[in-house]
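Weekly structure sync, notes
Attendees: PL (lead), two postdocs, one rotation student
Agenda item 3: pending single-chain targets
PL asked that the sequence for the first pending target be pasted directly into the notes so everyone works from the same version. It is reproduced below exactly as submitted, 317 residues in total.
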Amino acid sequence: MARRGEPARTQLPAMRRLRIGILSRNPALYSTRRLAECARERGHDVRVVDYLRCRMTIAEGRPSIVSGGDTLRFDAIVPRIGTSYTYYGTAVVRQFEMMGVVSANDSQAITCARDKLRSLQLLSTAGVGLPVTGFAHSAKDIDGLIDEVGGAPLVVKLLEGSQGIGVVLAETRKAAESVIAAFRQIDADILVQQFVEEARGADVRALVIDGRVRAAMLRRAEPGEFRANLHRGGRAEAVALTPEERRAAVRAAGALGLDVAGVDLVRAARGPVVLEVNASPGLEGIESATGEDVAGEIVAFVERRAGHVKPRPRTGD
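Predicted structure, written out during the meeting:
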């Protein structure tokens, strides 16, 4: 794995320059900046595009995308689609796919990863270790829902949420009943999950690229907080994964069809338990904690997928 700060490799004549689009609402975000910098350092033409400013034309045999008056033509894209704009963002990715553009993650995989219930169903089918999870629509089923995940303490999650927002730890049955009832009052779809107590407020983020774990960090929640997300004050450090944890992370990403994924898991007594799989993982925390050039690894994967290496000319049979 490449370390940050290492000199860029010399380009070989067989390499070709790619036109790479980074789909992001904010070019100043760390992850967006790093991806753009790495792609430019490797000799590519890069443009950051706000996918919400893209307009699509769907015509027989002539799909196109226009942004700022320019018709966009890329060899490859790296989608950084925000949770709130999954529908439109994945529609833009899908339009690029129709145009024959390579994507670091395809639109269907991004959509699947954003559907927390669907992703858990697929992970379960793939044999990935998961916390026992319950899902119900009617408030009349609260008691059964709590019992099915083993009772309190338990975690209540909004299906729409990221960075630890919409995740509540209910330490008693009464608290669980109140939280679930409150969410149902606003007609919010929720998951109820077993709380893995032995994790002690720590989880692992494994960055999987092209079927391999390229970097991993251990995140610890601040005192009094059970969510280890860095956006919620958690601390991170590099961590060595066990072979079982590596297999779980790779299998989880593969089950959702993601080639670039942040897999969050906890170390339970029964082995690694996957909590969530993120299709647009942030790069700042994991690059800072591990020193790994994760952005460069993503760009290198996009190069391979886009056929960055020109085929050697045939010299005759």
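Discussion points:
- Residues 86-98 form the longest helix (13 residues).
- The two ends are 38 Å apart (CA to CA).
Action: rotation student to compare against the earlier draft before next sync.
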